Amino acid sequence: MTELESPISIKLSNTHHLSNTSRSHYVKANRTVFHKINVTQSGMALILKVHPENNATEFLLSVNYGERPSFGDSDFGGTVPNFSSCINLSSGYVNCSRDPYVVVLSNELVSRTGYYFIGIKIKPRSGSRKRRCSEVGRSKRSCVQYKEAPATDAPNVAQSIHTPKYSRGDVVYTMQVLPAACLYWSKAASGWTTQGCQVK
Q1: Highest-scoring range by mean pLDDT, 132-136, 171-175, 189-193
Q2: Burial code of 178-198, b = ≥16 C-beta within 10 A, e = fewer?
Q3: What number is the average pLDDT over the span 64-73?
Q4: E strands of the chain, at which residues?
Q5: Would you say 11 and 77 are in contact if contact means Cβ atoms under 8 Å apart?
Q6: Contact 33, 157 (CB under 8 A)
Q7: Alpha-carbon torsion (46, 51, 52, 56), positive or negative
Q8: Does the N-terminal or the C-terminal CB of the chain have fewer CB atoms within 10 Å?
Q9: Region 137-159: what's the mean pLDDT?
Q10: Each residue of 82-121: pLDDT tens digit?
């Protein structure tokens, strides 16, 4: 194909079973879990599937290259699940053109090799109020203070042979990462290229 006047879409079925790469994690209330992914080849896109054990839970997701993201300043931010491609009925969401639990980080975003950091936190429910703690005077029994996540590059998800002990408000979720690429052979460059080609 040469001299295309408008972009074309090619749909290919995904033969890679994401269930084979599923890993369980958990995130505490008012905390952020960070995942570190090493991209070793340029031109790759990343397909993330983040699924909470409780379907009523929503996550805020942020991505940054080279360092941990903050939710106010990151290369990419989004919400999981994202039902914007679905029809909203009184019985729930139906006829989704995209999987609401899948986030595609395009090869334009994942444009460099190296480490990409993914931050996941529980999205606060709308209408809920955050109670602040006061350091002076008597503290309220229901007031709980949380420390900020450490700023080191060490992963926040501990690997342990023991069964983790969950607290009230903790959310268990699975996260799967699938690298993908859109490549074609360039006669001019005598090699594979991603120029003008995107994974959607």
Answers
A1: 171-175
A2: bebebeeeeeeeeeeebeeee
A3: 90
A4: 23-27, 33-39, 44-52, 59-65, 76-80, 87-89, 92-94, 102-105, 114-122, 171-181, 184-186, 191-193
A5: no
A6: yes
A7: positive
A8: N
A9: 44
A10: 999 999 888 888 889 889 999 999 888 898 999 999 999 9
Enter the tokens of residue 75. Answer: 């290369």
Structure tokens at 105: 């980080």
Q: Which of 67, 14, 10 is nearest to 176 (CA)?
A: 14
Helix, strand, coil % over all residues of the chain, rounded to 5: 0, 35, 60
Residue that is written with structure tokens 């919400």 in the block: 79
Any idea which residue has 């972009």 for tokens?
7
Query: Is pLDDT larger for residue 122 or for residue 1?
Result: 122
Contact yes or no for 173/51 (Cβ under 8 A): yes
Query: 114: which 2 tokens?
Result: 């190296």
* pLDDT of res. 34: 94
192, β-bridge pairs: 185
**Architecture of the domain whose range is 21-125+171-200:** Sandwich (2.60)
Strand, coil or helix: what is 171?
A: strand
Q: Specify whether the backbone of 103 is left (phi greater than 0), alpha (psi in -120 to 50) or beta.
A: beta
How many angstroms separate the CA atoms of 2 and 89, rounded? 44
